[in-house]
Design goal:
four-stranded antiparallel sheet, two-stranded parallel ribbon, single chain, alpha+beta, 46% helix, elongated, 256 residues
Length: 256
């Protein structure tokens, strides 16, 4: 049986700016504009903000200065134009139940337990359990028992549905019932799309000391990715260490 103790976050998609159409718009309205960032999301946030006041070529010159002002003024709606795609793996079903509560600005596609065989599924063990040998043994016995029961149930139900002509449907009928025995610790994989404002809200809420330990790990990983990916949008966040050695996220500009 495979045990997972660290989540994995993959940034798999980012925005591309159509420079030709940007220039066509500027020309049609007698405007000029230059920006100093090559990050598509940062360019689009600035463009979106400048459309509001037709301030192309005016005021703040650098993209960092422009976005910094938006954040300090808490003009968060402009950040919704910046979008990224992630695959999050090595996380539990408990994690995904909390993640999908974030609705505005998010999209999800999650591994299906009705179609995917979980006979060799991995299980995510919380650090607080892994660090205590007695707790670890109790947890291990529970997930091993659940996995064995799942395999046995799939075999029984596959036989029960043997007369169903469609092979895929037979498997689905067996697995969708057998999955009821699997614990929240079962690993899942989820593809997510989120805009910058939604990511900021997630990072602030789930990166706090009050958040669940597993989702806090993911929030910190996403923050570090985004500070490399779009530093002008996420520059105000800092990571601090608590007395227990764990990390949390702080910012002076909450709820942007």
């Amino acid at each position: 049986m495979r045990i997972v103790r660290e989540p994995r976050v993959y940034l798999v998609g980012r925005q591309h700016v159509d420079e030709e159409d940007i220039q066509r718009f500027l020309s049609d309205y007698g405007l000029t504009w230059e920006t100093d960032t090559e990050v598509g999301a940062e360019r689009l946030v600035e463009a979106g903000g400048r459309v509001c006041y037709l301030s192309f070529g005016k005021g703040r010159r650098s993209n960092a200065e422009y976005i910094g002002n938006l954040i300090s003024q808490r003009h968060g709606s402009v950040l919704e134009h910046a979008v990224w795609n992630f695959i999050i793996a090595g996380v539990s079903r408990s994690f995904s139940h909390e993640l999908v509560r974030h609705r505005a600005g998010w999209g999800y596609s999650q591994l299906s337990q009705r179609y995917v065989d979980e006979s060799d599924a991995a299980f995510v063990e919380p650090d607080v359990i892994a660090e205590d040998e007695r707790a670890h043994q109790v947890w291990l016995r529970a997930v091993e028992t659940a996995q064995r029961a799942y395999v046995e149930l799939v075999e029984i139900l596959s036989e029960k549905f043997k007369d169903v002509p469609d092979r895929t449907l037979r498997r689905k009928l067996a697995r969708q019932a057998a999955r009821s025995i699997l614990p929240n610790a079962t690993e899942t994989i989820i593809f997510v799309t989120a805009n910058a404002r939604a990511l900021r809200h997630f990072i602030e809420l789930r990166g706090s000391e009050w958040a669940d330990a597993e989702i806090r790990k993911v929030a910190l990983k996403i923050l570090r990715i985004m500070q490399r990916e779009a530093p002008h949008i996420f520059a105000d966040y800092r990571v601090e260490r608590l007395p227990d050695g764990t990390e949390v996220v702080k910012t002076d500009y909450e709820k942007v």
